[in-house]
Amino acid sequence: MTLSIRSLFFCLTSIFTLFTLMGENDIVAETLPISVGSKVPLTYDEMWQGFDPRKEPLEIEVLHRWEKDGVVLQVLRYRIGIFKGRKAMMAGVYGYPKGAGKLPGLLQIHGGGQYADSNAALTNAKRGYATLSIAWAGRVSAPQYRVTPNEVKLFWDGKTQDPKYKLTTDWGALDAYHAPSRYGKDAFPSIPVGDWCLDPVASPRNNAWFLVTLAARRGLTFLERQSEVDGSRLGVYGHSMGGKLTVATAGSDKRVKAAAPSCGGISDRYSNDSLHLATVSDPPSLKKITCPTIFLSPANDSHGRINDLPSAIKEIKTNEWRVTCSPHHNHQDSPPYEVATQIWFDQYLKGGCKLPQSPKISVKLEEGKSPLVMVDVNASRKISFIDVFYTQHGQVDGMKDNSTNTKNRFWHYAPVTNDRGEWKAHLPLHSSEKPLWVYANVSYELADPIKGAGYYYGTYEANTFNLSSLPALIKPEKLRNAKVSTHLGSRLIIEDFQGEWQKEWFSYKPAQWGIKTHKIYDPVWRAPKGAKLGLDVQAEQPNQMILGLDNYATEFEIKGGGAWTSILLPCLVFKNAEGQALESWQGCRELQLDAKVRLNPGRDSPAKPLHLGANWKGTAPAFRNLRWVRN
Questions:
Q1: What does DSSP say about strands 412-414 and 383-391: parallel, antiparallel, or unpaired?
Q2: Of 236, 265, 291, which one is at a domain's C-terminal end?
Q3: Alpha carbons 243 and 245: distance in angstroms, whole number
Q4: What is the CA radius of gyration of the chain?
Q5: Residue 337 located in a structural domain
Q6: What gap in Å lies between CA 406 and CA 401, rounded to an integer?
Q7: What are phi and psi for residue 405, nearest 5 degrees?
Q8: For the packed helices 208-224 and 241-252, what is the interaxial angle rounded to 10 degrees?
Q9: What's the predicted TM-score (pTM) here?
């Protein structure tokens, strides 16, 4: 294959840059040779061919050092490599318990828009780990050393005299930054070609997933070379984009002995670009994973879809796997699910207590009856409770993601009973024309509480942990052929607030009483035309309260004194940040009861965020009769 004029110019420019950067007695070896023509990698193995993460010096620079609670913490940089004659350096936060040795090491990879954060290293150190949190997008959050996107831009612009300037990640001649990217292009979903890319032609090594994974593998080299770290016990974890990068790192580097990706690493499998699919999508990495892996996949997450979990589990090359799936959550979790990461590493890197085997489910279909789910539960540890969740909002596997549906699908709760030693749950259905997705959660008690840093680095404490079954899919034709009962008809009562009603609601702030549900997105609770929304509220003190629907909300007064306040609301009283009224109930997806809310305007709107409600006074309110009222 002959070179184009542009490719030839690109190569000559790179060679010139390389030689101009060489000192008289220096020889700069490129980490990866430039690929053109027939040398462009077309497969996963070809993409990584020739790269040795241990080969080059690390050239570690300590930028800031401090101690807290017996933990040594550092903001530092290490060398990623030499690309097109320019050095690339990765910033990060490293921490370990002072005076300790032979520690297991953890590599933590942040998600899009996130930071390398000192709280991850601090909380892990208190549990006996050395942790490197890498700042692949340049952002760092540490006491007296915080790098935001504004400081990253100062770094790009070379404004070293600015008082806010701080050294951070430097990708040199390349661009693997994110939100914003240095050259105004997002190199993650595509195979880009540009002057800021490694190869002058379409190549997976131009893709930022590859570049950040390469830098993460260098981070493993950093960990294994620290005197306090046992390099034979390394783990990797990350959230969102960090979840995908966790899968990519574990698949490409056998030094990883345990992995815990959350909300990513399973669903990048629908690209129209064959080169992307063959190299930097999720399946090629999943098929290389041999280490024990736990997937944290909230049931409404659209970046790592729960319905892609069965495919991911089939692809990995290990039988040591678990999944944990919080119902209703999108891209966030609560402590019983987040703590799975800590327990997983304790088991495989510290020889801690072994987790029970995953629960398994089977679904029985009988004519004239609701589907029956049987749950096979491992009782090697004390069980707190068993739940079954199911939805008919799920898509048939293999379809391109409908993000709105995925994030808002409603998961019905099915009570589980023990019938002569068998755990069973009935699934009342509304339709046999839609697919049925179902999975089980088993909650186990912890012998002692565990503290950790969550997805977004806030410290949590967990007293239980959850393991989930893989979701099962029953296609519509199978439901129809079995002639199952579909007696779950439309209902005006959305919630009676009796029994275990909380199982169908959720909150990302469990310390507060505010709650949300996707019930109104389900056809069972679809609003009749012209209906009003009713609710009864009881509180000990007078308060303001809000009722929200998607990006609309309204506020109202609660009497207090233990009296019930009844409200009856038409849709037009709900307003968005621009002051526009909700014209119809149709299409509403999420309902929220809370003390206050912030409504954000649309992306290009000149409006400011709208704040409704106020701090709640007294104990949490009680509710009854959330309902549609016909005119």
A1: antiparallel
A2: 291
A3: 5
A4: 27
A5: no
A6: 7
A7: -65, -45
A8: 60
A9: 0.94
Q: Are residues 249 and 366 in the same domain?
A: no
User: Domain with 511 in it: what CATH number?
Assistant: 2.60.120
And the tokens for 158?
């070379």
Q: What letter does residue 630 receive in the DSSP assignment?
A: -
Do 480 and 498 have their domain in common?
no
Q: How many domains does the chain have?
A: 3
158: left (phi over 0), alpha (psi -120 to 50) or beta: left
CATH code where residue 36 lies:
3.40.50
C-alpha atoms less than 13 angstroms from C-alpha of 582 in its C-beta half-sphere? 24
The reply to whether 404 falls in a domain is: yes
Residue among 506, 504, 125, 202 nearest 329 (CA): 506
Residues 505 and 481 both lie in one domain: no
What SS3 string covers 35-89? CCHHHCCCCHHHHHCCCCCCCCCCCCEEEEEEEECCEEEEEEEEEEEEECCEEEE
DSSP state letter for 152: H
Give dist(CA 98, CA 128) in Å, integer.
Answer: 10
Provide the token pair at 373: 């789910």
CATH number at residue 460: 2.60.40
47 and 90 belong to one structural domain = yes
The pLDDT, as a whole number, for residue 615 is 95
Integer CA distances (angstroms), 420 to 364, 413, 440, in order: 17, 22, 19
Domain boundary (448, 463, 487) is at 487
**DSSP secondary structure, 540-603, as one string:** SS-EEEEEEETTEEEEEEE--TTPEEEEEE-GGG-B-TT-PBP--STT---EEEESEEEEPPPT
- As a whole number of angstroms, the distance between CA 172 and CA 81 comes to 9
469: which 2 tokens? 């079954």
Check residue 13 and give its pLDDT. Answer: 47
19 occurs within a structural domain: yes
Q: Scanning the structure block, which residue is given the tokens 């050095």? A: 87
80 close to 59: Cβ distance less than 8 angstroms: no
Provide the token pair at 224.
């294994």
In a domain, 315, yes or no: no
Q: Which amino acid is at 241?
A: M
565 lies in which domain range?
A: 494-629
- Whether residue 165 is found in the same domain as residue 240: yes
Which of these, 594, 597, 615, lies nearest to 541 by C-alpha position?
615
d(CA 392, CA 438): 9
| Residue 12: per-residue pLDDT | 45
Same domain flag for 482 and 499: no
Q: How far apart, in whole angstroms, are the C-alpha atoms of residue 412 and residue 389? A: 5
Q: Are 410 and 391 within 8 A, CB to CB?
A: yes
Q: What span, in angstroms and rounded, lies between the C-alpha atoms of 414 and 619?
A: 30
Q: What angle do CA 76, 78, 84 make, to 5 degrees?
A: 140
Strand partners, 622: 538
pLDDT along the chain (631 residues), means of 10: 46 45 55 87 96 98 98 98 97 98 98 97 98 98 97 95 96 94 84 93 96 98 98 98 98 98 96 96 98 98 94 98 97 95 97 93 97 96 96 75 89 94 95 96 96 94 97 96 96 97 93 95 94 97 96 95 95 96 95 96 91 95 97 83
Q: Is residue 395 domain-shared with residue 542, that is, in the same domain? A: no
Measured distance CA(605)–CA(205) in Å, rounded: 38
Q: Are residues 502 and 534 in the same domain?
A: yes
Query: What values do phi and psi take at 352, rounded to 5?
Result: -75, -175
pLDDT of residue 38: 80
